Amino acid sequence: MPEGDTVWYTARRLHEVLAGKPLTRTDFRVPRLATTDLAGRRALEAAPRGKHLLIRVEGGLTVHSHLGMEGAWRVSTPERPARGGAGPSHQIRAVLATAAGTATGYRLPLLELLRTDEEAAALGHLGPDLLGPDWDAPEALRRLLADPGRPLVEALLDQRNLAGIGNVYAAELCFLAAVSPWTPVGELPPHRLEKLVAAARNLLDANKDRLDRRTTQAAARTGPDRDRALWVYGRTGRPCHRCGTPVRTGRHGPPDSPRTAFYCPRCQPGPHP
Ligand SMILES: [Zn+2]
After folding, report:
1. Residue 245 sits in a domain of what CATH number?
2. Ligand 1 mean position, distance from CA 41 (Å)
3. Is the pLDDT of residue 103 over 80?
4. Is the same domain home to 38 and 90?
5. How close is the Cα of 225 to the center of ligand 1, in Å?
6. Pair type for strands 92-98 and 72-76
């Protein structure tokens, strides 16, 4: 699942083939960009912002995309051709090519063309970016505590508080903090919330250069045993790596778009559904 680390990694790959080079071909397969053609313009850079991806193009334009739950960009170069892409071709939403390579976006739930000077307005709602050069932990803490009764997992997922955390890190961070995901964020002692936010930055930073995300130390070098890579996310019914209790799931979020939280009922005391 794409989170801040995935977007950071993706932006870097896109930057390698696009930045500083004229676009030789663009193809946007969404209705409102169907007639947009950026060929001939120089691509300037690809930059991550939380879970958003910004490809800036000469002439003050920005291709803004979000990977949502299922989206992906794949890069192919003459030296490293993409094998099979990231899905069938009818799922392709965008293609940007330079002489150095081709970037293909699949299943992008958000794809739009902005004026670069409109980026701040479009993304101004985002809280401090966990992987951004302007990361501001005190501001993230202030925002997290603005609604102290909110369940921790929901506060962590709200990109207006801090940008970059998705379902995987939200679950893993609650486990590492040894509290139930439903604990009201304001009930966590300040030093523990501070530690949790620092852990969030460290985890995303540690994973931003690779695609096989890991949050456990034990999994750091154990090869293909994927079940060891995460503490609780996606591990329903399997034994907690710490205490052996089966990992459970519960719902949170608005009733019309509920999300699933993963937790160990023993290692993570507090309110459970
Ligand atoms: Zn446990």
Report:
1. 1.10.8.50
2. 54
3. yes
4. yes
5. 19
6. unpaired
